């Protein structure tokens, strides 16, 4: 079933590779398009197979600086804590015009419950924009639905972020394995923090693996280490800065 799906050059370049998600939002010190592109350049020099980036501006600058395939997403805020990924064809078109080689969309039951709407968006991106589509899902049933509707890749990005997936393990390698066994071309994404996680994901059948925070967010990485110190003041300050106290 997988072998009958699209085999564009960019998809093949991602096979068995590491994709680095280069993103920063809000008041994050790295929230600058030039800095995001520099992170992407570092990822390329480190051997990454591709980059995932948010918004036309970042996508365009990354494409100017690296030769890797870029997976474009367009985050649209729903609440302070929840967003939708590339909700409309217009969002997808802006990413394509910026140079995105693949386009990621949300395909959860929570934000895209209508099968017809999802199917039309998938086909419009693949047909009109001529771009492969990565469908971001949170549970097995969403992944199968997106694959059967024509998604080129299905990513476990949103596991733990929807009401259908609360309490799932992090990273959700069980979901990776189930989707791979079902014949889905699956991308392991979400809470991948160690090389061992990457090895495990590939062992379960992942087509490729996405790592973001563990490579590109110094604030989070620093907090993992300060959280292991014996200095209660340092640890509390770090947690308060992250808003987790």
Written account of the structure:
The protein has eleven helices and ten strands. With 245 residues, it is of the alpha/beta class. The strands form two sheets. An eight-stranded parallel β-barrel has the order 1-2-3-6-7-8-9-10, surrounded by seven helices. Helix 2 packs across helix 3 and helix 3 (56-65) packs parallel to helix 4. The chain is 42% helix and 16% strand. It is globular. It folds into two domains: 10-211, TIM Barrel; 218-245, no CATH class.
Separate helix tally: 11
CATH structural class of the largest domain: Alpha Beta
Shape: globular
What count of domains describes the coordinates?
A: 2
Biggest beta sheet attributes: 8 strands, parallel, barrel
The percent of residues in helical segments reads 40-55%
Oligomeric state, counting identical vs distinct chains: single chain
Give the N-terminus to C-terminus distance in angstroms: 47 Å
* Major sheet strand order: 1-2-3-6-7-8-9-10
Low-confidence stretches: none
Mean pLDDT: 92
Beta-strand residue percentage = 15-25%
Radius of gyration: 17 Å
At CATH level 2, the architecture of the largest domain is Alpha-Beta Barrel
Number of strands: 10
* SSE class: alpha/beta
CATH topology of the largest domain: TIM Barrel
Going by CATH, the homologous superfamily of the largest domain would be: Aldolase class I
Order of helices and strands: HEHEHEEEHEHEHEHEHEHHH
What's the SSE blueprint?
Elements: H1 9-14, E1 18-21, H2 33-45, E2 50-54, H3 56-65, E3 70-73, E4 75-77, E5 83-85, H4 89-98, E6 102-106, H5 115-127, E7 133-136, H6 140-148, E8 153-155, H7 173-181, E9 186-189, H8 195-203, E10 208-211, H9 213-216, H10 218-226, H11 232-241
Parallel strand pairs: 1-2, 1-10, 2-3, 3-6, 6-7, 7-8, 8-9, 9-10
Antiparallel strand pairs: 4-5
Helix pairs in contact: 2-3, 3-4
């Amino acid at each position: 079933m997988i072998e009958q799906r699209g085999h564009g050059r960019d998809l093949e370049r991602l096979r068995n590779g590491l994709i680095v998600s280069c993103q920063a939002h809000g008041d994050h010190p790295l929230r600058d398009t030039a800095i995001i592109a520099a992170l992407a350049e570092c990822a390329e020099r480190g051997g990454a197979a591709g980059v995932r980036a948010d918004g036309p501006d970042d996508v365009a600058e990354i494409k100017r600086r690296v030769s890797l395939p870029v997976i474009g997403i367009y985050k649209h805020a729903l609440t302070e804590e929840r967003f939708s990924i590339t909700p409309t064809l217009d969002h997808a078109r802006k990413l394509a015009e910026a140079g995105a080689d693949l386009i990621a969309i949300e395909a959860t039951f929570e934000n895209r419950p209508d099968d017809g709407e999802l199917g039309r968006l998938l086909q419009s991106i693949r047909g009109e924009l001529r771009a492969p589509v990565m469908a971001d899902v949170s549970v097995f049933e969403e992944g199968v639905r997106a694959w059967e509707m024509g998604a080129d890749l299905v990513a476990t990005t949103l596991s733990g972020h929807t009401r259908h997936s609360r309490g799932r393990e992090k990273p959700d390698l069980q979901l990776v394995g189930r989707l791979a066994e079902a014949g889905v071309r699956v991308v392991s994404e979400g809470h991948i923090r160690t090389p061992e996680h990457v090895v495990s994901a590939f062992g379960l059948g992942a087509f490729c693996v996405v790592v973001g925070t563990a490579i590109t967010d110094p604030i989070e990485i620093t907090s993992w280490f300060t959280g292991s110190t014996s200095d209660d003041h340092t640890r509390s300050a770090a947690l308060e800065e992250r808003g987790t106290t």
